[in-house]
What we know:
Elements: H1 3-14, H2 17-76, E1 79-80, E2 86-88, E3 91-93, E4 96-98, H3 101-108, E5 119-121, E6 124-125, E7 128-136, E8 142-152, E9 155-158, H4 170-182, H5 184-200
Antiparallel strand pairs: 1-2, 3-4, 3-5, 5-6, 7-8, 8-9
Helix pairs in contact: 1-2, 2-5
Amino acid sequence: MSPQIFALAKAQATGNPLALEKIKLEYEIKNLTLLARSNRLDHYNNRQQLLNVEYRIAHLQDKLPQLKKASETFKSNERRDDEGKLLSLQVRFNGLEFSKLKDANEYLRTVTLDSTTQLTVNGLDIPLAVSDALIKDELGTITDITAVRYNLAGEWFDVPRPEAHMGCHQPILLTSVLRRGSDLPSKISKRKPRFSKTSQR
């Protein structure tokens, strides 16, 4: 039996209405205190979430000009046909230049990527981060792999791990960069409405 129920039963047994009222008021005060504490905690959590959202919006607003410039540069350095098929692009790898994706991929298959690799795709510098990592498959087999990440317009992306028959990251790297570069306009358009709504508040 809880202390509150015991006290209430005791007050009822005495037959004193004031004792009964006192127990009820103490119970209500305790509940109100708990509610007030919960409300303060909710208020604090909501305030922290709001600050995080405001910081995120400010960060994205600062980043938007960089995204616009990167998108314009990227688009101006490639040619596509009316159906969107890639006709030519601009890839510079350690000083060598390529205008065809096939030629760039064929060359990149023959070289090793590392963090000093100089890569430019459609006018944008693409810094690389290359590191060794150990992964464990479902059978518990541990494999040593090379993890590759690249930076596009201030954001880091993982290069998908190649299948066993592909052997190297390079063709996947360029495909991933081109896909992310093509996504820049939609990424910009998705962020614009959020800024305008926020500024109206």
